[in-house]
Automatic annotation (TrEMBL):
Tree of life domain: Bacteria
InterPro entries linked to this entry: ArsR-like_HTH, AsnC-type_HTH_dom, Dimeric_a/b-barrel, Tscrpt_reg_AsnC-like, Tscrpt_reg_AsnC/Lrp_C, WH-like_DNA-bd_sf, WH_DNA-bd_sf
GO CC annotations on file: cytosol
Residue ranges of domain HTH asnC-type in the record: 1-80
Gene: lrp_7
Protein name: Leucine-responsive regulatory protein
SUPFAM superfamilies documented for this protein: Dimeric alpha+beta barrel (SSF54909), Winged helix' DNA-binding domain (SSF46785)
Keyword line: DNA-binding, Transcription, Transcription regulation
CDD domains: HTH_ARSR
Species the sequence originates in: Vibrio quintilis
A GO biological process held by the record: regulation of DNA-templated transcription
UniProt xrefs under Gene3D superfamilies: 3.30.70.920, Winged helix-like DNA-binding domain superfamily/Winged helix DNA-binding domain
Entry's Gene Ontology molecular function annotations: sequence-specific DNA binding
Amino acid sequence: MDKFDQHIIQILKADARCSVSEIAKQVNLSRSAVTARIRKLEEDRVITGYHAQVSLSQESPAQICAYLALKFDTSSSGIHDCTTYANSLSLIDGIQWCHGISGETDLMLYVQVANMGRLKEIIDTIYTYPHLRQLVTHTVIHEFFHHTTEK
């Protein structure tokens, strides 16, 4: 590797999208010479890839989405009021919505958090609720589409 190769590498490290024409101007070589040198550097595995650097402030935080199905034991409490549970759940950061639904499930929650640790914290909090009989977690693996309705 000579000084031209080192200069080409410096330019590409600073800007992987820099054109061959621009590199040729900066290193004072022809475009064909720069192209040949880059190809040789790639073949020799000196250059192993080209990458985009993203500012951390521009990255969106990772999102974990899950549905939590909650069932409560009504026989031991004598009184079963999902409104009380829903009001309490509304105070937990990360729970986006809570629906009372038909069937054996009493409440269906949609949770959106930054990481699995936060999801576990929410689940652990819900497990402290009195008369909770069952909590089933359905983690979203892939979203195919998401329609929003305008009201």
